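hey m, so remember when u said the tokens were messed up on ur end? i reran from scratch. heres the input so u can diff it against urs
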Amino acid sequence: MKNSLQVAGGVVGAVVGFIATLLMLELLGFGNRADPIMSGILALLVFAPCGAIGGLVLGTALARRLRGGENTGTLLRNSLKALAVVVALCVAAGVSYYVYAVTSATPWLNPNAATPLLVFEVRLPAGAALPNSVRDIAIELQTDINRMPGEPRFNRFRSDGDRPVIAGDVELAFRTAHRQLEIKVKGQPDRLYSIGLSAKAPHTSELGPWQPNIDGSEIRYRAKWPGPD
């Protein structure tokens, strides 16, 4: 394009004008200390864009002078083309930042609200003993993002025939499909259970079916979200 130099000059002028305006405002002590947020908004969204437009026109004009008799198009037309390029670059930068923010954001399961719970019961093999205190049991939810200690609920401990049943809950802080629950009972082998909830772990009002584990124990569970069951 014969006028590409003018467009490029306008783009460079817009960037220089934007930055120069902000620097000038800083040097002049622009702003209201009682309301720095409003001062910042005015600087970024009003004065700096005006400086960018002025720099854009000036940059386009300087590029026209450099080309001399080889100029094509009017100053206004080439300035508008440069402005279109600047807007496109700003949109591309905004979209790129949004994609980065979404892909790198912490995958909270329930952001800005109470954390859902994994409520579970484990039916131990016949002859196994129930833990007597908090010191005798350790519960941990393990994911590909974090590890979260769980809480035993001794008021829900019971016997199912000759098989003891322990119960507890643990926070489901993050959105992930890779979850497993480790339970350690003093004097017994450590047990690891795969938790087959989806990444979003939807709320259910009842515990699911018993799922056998390799050691002869069984687990059942549900996701409990804030609010009524």
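this time it looks ok to me. The helical segments are 4-27, 36-67, 75-104. if urs says something different then somethings off w ur setup not the seq
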